[in-house]
Amino acid sequence: MSDMIDNDIIEPSIDPTTKKIGVRHVKATNAAGTRTKIQVRDFAPVYTDEPASLGGTNSAPSPLETVLVALVGCDGVIINGVAKAMGFDYTGVDFACESQIDVRGPKGVPGIRPYFESGTLTITVYSDETDARFRQLAKNVEFRCPVMNLLAAAKVDMAVTWEQRPAEEYSGSVE
């Protein structure tokens, strides 16, 4: 790959010369409160709300919490795709994520950003691959993950820590 700057970045898994647009649709309704009902494709509705401490009914995750949901979910998808492209063997991944926001921003205080200031994300990959291949996986996931890059573009100070544990230690399930 002669035109890539970093030799650790693997080849694209799609024709890089042909633009391919992916369109996502959601519909939602909000009955003049903090709770919103959201429809995505033909799935059961999902909801957002705010904690009672912020004037909500605390009946669902906040919209900003769903951004973190999107981040770890997207990382899970991208880890899987990069691992397949690299022939990287792993048994699972655990995520721990949190973020900080100055709630004065969404309340309209000038000069305070109305979204995350910073956050932490720990990604634990259960794999017996070499350290070099593990680092290459991490680098490629960070290069490809749409949500991680969206947060970076918004200048959210996100500290990402990658940890590797033996494959046999994974005990999670997505059931």
Automatic annotation (TrEMBL):
InterPro entries in the cross-refs: KH_dom-like_a/b, OsmC/Ohr_fam, OsmC/Ohr_hydroprdx_reductase, OsmC/Ohrsf
Gene3D superfamilies tied to this protein: 3.30.300.20
Superkingdom of the organism of origin: Bacteria
SUPFAM superfamilies: OsmC-like
Pfam families assigned: OsmC
Name recorded for this polypeptide: Uncharacterized OsmC-related protein
Organism name: Aliiruegeria lutimaris
